[in-house]
Input
Amino acid sequence: MSVGEPYFEKLFADSDDPWAFRTRWYERRKRDLILASLPRQFYARAFEPACANGELSVVLAHRTAELLCQDLNPRAVALAQQRLAGCPQASVTSGALPEDWPQGTFDLIVLGEIGYYLDPAQWQRVIEYARACLRPEGGLLACHWLHPIEGCSQNGRQVHQIIEQHVGLPRMLRHEEKDFLLEYWGASPVDLDESSSLG
Output
């Protein structure tokens, strides 16, 4: 790992919202953009690693029948579990990628602000795992900060380049601003419920 567990232990020891996900307009707006970028209204099974304190998780839960969240920091896991207490379709587990990739298949994987904390080889493995467990109609959404982060071996643009090289799916959406890059790769941008009603 490019940035180790002590880095996150210190962050969560000092605050239950170390990136101000809950309070900063930048973060709230970015969450809204992520949700608006999902081409389907509803997903059967989704995976969100590096869920932190669960601020994005709780809104993703309302778009999924089953949501699996994961974080390597025990404090983050506990906070996310509290945040998702009212969402029985969501669960939070402890684990670090790529080693603790979960079992089963998904029709949505959300990789938010995680790639640069891994080295390029680890991140490539994550993308390969993601591609292998995506259902045929599934999609992968990634969103990353574009500025350098101290101690990280990659920046957000490099993280997305590795996804593009290894995910093996067409890119359906790209949204870039000064501070972050948001992209979605998937087999189909059409909501399955909508498409079935057309036939």
Summary: The domain at 5-198 is CATH 3.40.50.150 (Rossmann fold). Residues 194-199 have pLDDT under 50 and may be disordered.
